[in-house]
């Protein structure tokens, strides 16, 4: 590993002949700083020299090398990164070399904003040439941490700015096969289905996606991710959602199974609030789950909230609130009806 | 029935659940009737850990060398939440240090001589507000800060973290937060911000860091708070957001940051504060649910009538509070219309003075239990979850979240919570109250507002406000 040369036998800047002309600039911490950090000798010295070239705005090869050393000591220093970009541009350095540098730093710092931002800057400069490499790189990150937020943002940016959509849906599929609970993969799936220029958009993809999602729900009804995804497939089109027979059928299947009913009930409640006319089967499935203390004449929506108050005690206050909202919605429609009747009579 | 495949998500989740259950079982075994009596905030230990951090940090903190205003904020805000004080000398040292982080062209960097950055600007400004002295507030160059904020504006409507930096919802929040609290907001600054944040609300209901990304607790707080501050919160899908956030509280009692991720103490604030903010948005929520707010008196009258009176039976035994859950038509709830727009510059003040017409939609006691039993470390400090180490970030946000949970049942700002709403012995556990939009202690917010109001608004900005001379 040639990248270790710096850390292995570091020669202090003050002993390096090519730095003899530079006067280090100490940090202006004041006489009694708060949150003072007990820097190592190497750290202090490197930063003192960095300040010197930063203040002098020296865009040179040695400045580039110095920023590299400073970044290895603290990859979170955005000032160093920003100055490095300035120097890179001034020197016209081959940015593929720069990518190798970032790869070396990235290893232990997959949650660092600066590195990802620098990668994005690089990929933007490299253009279409960077696509394969960036998609592979993020894949490698996901093999260790499939939910890495920065890596997903980066991947989405690459797809949108530079392309590479061809295999993305298959990749989501594969990640979900590995772990159907991986919500980041579901989110990416939504991203691809709604934004890929190759797939025709959400409406065109909907039927296929509903099939897939309904299967995932049947396999693990307690998994929140596919339920939210299913709702997302009908974003801004609840009319179609309410009419989808596949949805009604998966709801019935789950409600009559031994599995957790929480998400199915939540989903059904949502549908009812969007004027779903429930089938007799669904009504009876809910009745079976309704606590005996409930009056049988209670509205279906309120029954569902009552079941959820028991089945999901963590959110009892939420379900209670939902029930109270249903109550008012009901009252308002009654009032509206009454007013309508009045005006008819008049 | 297909058998459920055990995946990494499930395995990780089970490990955490087991650890947490062991802790709860232990506490309930030593005191089955009132385990919370045994719990308290280790105030002295936390104070020791925090003031130690202010005075000296080891070499391992070098990786936070570009986040020193954050270290100030995490420690100073935590100390303020505990109701402790660090003394005049250390306070002056903090003001002096932060002044050295202030850029000559406005904003604060991660340390002396570093470029100004929005996140560290937020941390520095909140630190100075927490210090609260006139010298602290007057050390902020408001005029230059305004030009820095304007310089960070991006064509997308969002903000950039620093010159050449990344654009995301965090940047929007930190910019809007400092602008609001320092009374330097104007139309130019907020133009397009609402569109940007709106484009980050996902199909799940929460808010992501960038358009297309996954809904996330930290960004959801930032997005919601910023939308409230620019008075455009009615543009978000609030019922969807509520439904997402209440499902982030897990069986452990604490919150997770994203769907199917692990519980983490810091989300006690990020997610807890989202629910807390929503409690003051009931009028807009009703509007979005298609409920007209002026119907409230009618519904209050009608609610005594037959069809609704079966309500009470299943409320009993669930919670002593639930009858209060829906106080539509209570005094104050309808005094102002949801579309009424306060002066943008004072949305933070108007917001905190709204009556809280909605009860918390999360389990605030259970959240407190998680923070105190699972995140708190006996020797001082707080952590993400059992098995992890303490740090200043988690200490700050666990304490902030604890405060949010403790005050979530209060009716209005400035009123103390009832003992039954505070987990553990009241006097030992009760923290100071925060302003949920800025996450600074409420009293310090009022002082800062008084100061900022005394300064002139954007153009021309006064550099010598009268307040500092008293
Ligand atoms: Zn955390």
Automatic annotation (TrEMBL), chain B:
Keyword Zinc (UniProt): yes
Keyword Repeat: yes
Membrane-spanning residues: none
Positions of region (Disordered): 295-314
GO biological process, one term: prenylation
Gene Ontology, cellular component aspect: protein farnesyltransferase complex
Keyword terms of this UniProt record: Metal-binding, Prenyltransferase, Repeat, Transferase, Zinc
Prenyltransferase alpha-alpha toroid domain location: 42-440
A GO term for molecular function: zinc ion binding
InterPro entries: FTB (IPR026872), PGGT1B-like (IPR045089), Prenyltrans (IPR001330), Terpenoid_cyclase/PrenylTrfase (IPR008930)
Reaction equations catalysed: L-cysteinyl-[protein] + (2E,6E)-farnesyl diphosphate = S-(2E,6E)-farnesyl-L-cysteinyl-[protein] + diphosphate
Domain of life: Eukaryota
EC number: 2.5.1.58
Cofactor comment: Binds 1 zinc ion per subunit.
Cofactor dependency: Zn(2+)
A family per Pfam: Prenyltrans
Biased composition (Acidic residues): 299-314
Subunit structure of this chain's protein: Heterodimer of FTA and FTB.
Family: Belongs to the protein prenyltransferase subunit beta family.
Biological role: Catalyzes the transfer of a farnesyl moiety from farnesyl diphosphate to a cysteine at the fourth position from the C-terminus of several proteins. The beta subunit is responsible for peptide-binding.
Record-linked PANTHER family: GERANYLGERANYL TRANSFERASE TYPE BETA SUBUNIT, PROTEIN FARNESYLTRANSFERASE SUBUNIT BETA
Protein known as: Protein farnesyltransferase subunit beta
Annotated gene: LeFTB
């Amino acid at each position: 590993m040639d990248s270790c040369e710096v850390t292995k036998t570091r020669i202090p800047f003050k002993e390096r002949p090519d730095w003899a002309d530079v006067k280090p600039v100490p940090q202006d911490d004041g006489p009694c700083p708060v949150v003072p950090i007990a820097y190592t000798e190497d750290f202090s010295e490197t930063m003192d020299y960095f300040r010197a070239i930063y203040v002098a705005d020296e865009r040179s090869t040695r400045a580039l090398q110095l920023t590299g050393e400073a970044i290895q000591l603290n990859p979170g220093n955005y000032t160093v990164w920003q100055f490095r970009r300035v120097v890179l541009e001034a020197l016209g350095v081959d940015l593929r070399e720069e990518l190798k540098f970032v790869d070396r730093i990235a290893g232990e710092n997959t949650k660092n904003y600066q590195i990802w931002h620098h990668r994005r800057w690089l990929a933007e400069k490299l253009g279409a040439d960077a696509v394969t490499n960036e998609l592979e790189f993020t894949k490698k990150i996901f093999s260790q941490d499939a939910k890495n937020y920065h890596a997903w943002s980066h991947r989405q940016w690459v797809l949108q700015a530079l392309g590479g959509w061809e295999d993305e849906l298959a990749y989501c599929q594969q990640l979900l096969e590995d772990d159907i609970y991986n919500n980041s993969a579901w989110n990416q799936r939504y991203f691809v289905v709604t934004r890929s220029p190759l797939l025709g958009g959400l409406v065109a993809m909907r039927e296929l996606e509903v099939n897939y999602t309904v299967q995932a729900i049947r396999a693990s009804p307690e998994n929140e991710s596919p339920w939210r995804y299913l709702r997302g497939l009908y974003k801004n089109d609840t009319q179609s959602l309410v009419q989808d027979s596949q949805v009604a059928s998966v709801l019935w299947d789950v409600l009559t199974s031994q599995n957790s009913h929480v998400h199915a009930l939540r989903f059904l409640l949502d549908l009812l609030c969007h004027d779903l006319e429930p089938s007799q089967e669904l009504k009876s499935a809910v009745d079976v789950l309704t606590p005996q203390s409930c009056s049988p004449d209670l509205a279906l929506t309120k029954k569902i909230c009552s079941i959820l108050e028991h089945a999901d005690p963590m959110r009892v206050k939420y379900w209670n609130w939902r029930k109270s909202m249903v109550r008012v919605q009901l009252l308002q429609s009654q009032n509206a009806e009454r007013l309508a009747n009045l005006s008819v009579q008049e | 029935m297909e058998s459920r495949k055990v995946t990494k998500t499930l395995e990780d989740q089970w490990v955490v659940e087991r650890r947490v259950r062991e802790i709860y079982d232990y506490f309930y075994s030593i005191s089955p009737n009132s385990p919370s009596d045994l719990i308290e905030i280790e105030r002295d230990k936390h104070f020791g850990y925090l003031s130690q951090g202010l005075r000296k940090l080891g070499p391992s903190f070098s990786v936070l060398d570009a986040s020193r205003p954050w270290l100030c904020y995490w420690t100073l805000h935590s100390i303020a939440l505990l109701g402790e004080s660090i003394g005049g000398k250390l306070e002056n040292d903090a003001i002096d240090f932060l002044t050295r982080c202030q850029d000559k062209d406005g904003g604060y960097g991660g340390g002396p001589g570093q470029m100004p950055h929005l996140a560290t600007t937020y941390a520095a400004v909140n630190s100075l507000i927490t210090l609260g002295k006139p010298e602290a507030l007057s050390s902020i160059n408001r005029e230059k800060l305004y030009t820095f904020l304007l310089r960070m504006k991006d064509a997308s409507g969002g903000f950039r973290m620093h010159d050449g930096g990344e654009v995301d919802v965090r940047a929007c929040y930190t910019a809007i937060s400092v602008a609001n609290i320092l009374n330097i907001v104007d139309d130019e600054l907020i133009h397009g911000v609402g569109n940007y944040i709106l484009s980050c609300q996902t199909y799940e209901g929460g808010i992501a860091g960038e358009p297309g990304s996954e809904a996330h607790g930290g960004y959801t707080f930032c997005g919601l708070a910023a939308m409230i501050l620019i008075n455009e919160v009615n543009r978000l899908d609030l019922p969807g957001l509520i439904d997402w956030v209440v499902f982030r509280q897990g069986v452990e009692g604490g919150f997770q940051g994203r769907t199917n991720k692990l519980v983490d103490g810091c989300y006690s604030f990020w997610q807890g504060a989202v629910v807390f903010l929503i409690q003051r948005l009931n009028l807009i929520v009703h509007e979005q649910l298609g409920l007209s707010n002026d119907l409230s008196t009618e519904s209050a009258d009608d609610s005594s009538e037959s069809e609704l009176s079966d309500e009470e039976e299943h409320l009993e035994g669930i919670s002593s509070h639930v009858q209060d859950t829906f106080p539509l038509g209570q005094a104050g709830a309808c005094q102002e219309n949801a579309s009424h727009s306060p002066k943008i510059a004072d949305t933070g003040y108007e917001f905190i003075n709204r009556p809280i017409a909605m009860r918390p939609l999360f389990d605030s006691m259970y959240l407190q239990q998680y923070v105190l039993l699972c995140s708190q470390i006996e020797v001082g400090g707080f952590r993400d979850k059992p098995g992890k180490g303490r740090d200043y970030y988690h200490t700050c946000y666990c304490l902030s979240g604890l405060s949010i949970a403790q005050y979530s049942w209060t009716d209005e700002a400035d009123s103390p919570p009832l003992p039954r709403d505070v987990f553990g012995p009241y006097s030992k556990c009760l923290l100071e109250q925060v302003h949920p939009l800025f996450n600074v202690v409420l009293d310090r917010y009022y002082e800062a507002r008084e100061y900022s109001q005394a300064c002139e608004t954007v153009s021309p900005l006064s550099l010598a406000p009268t307040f500092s001379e008293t």
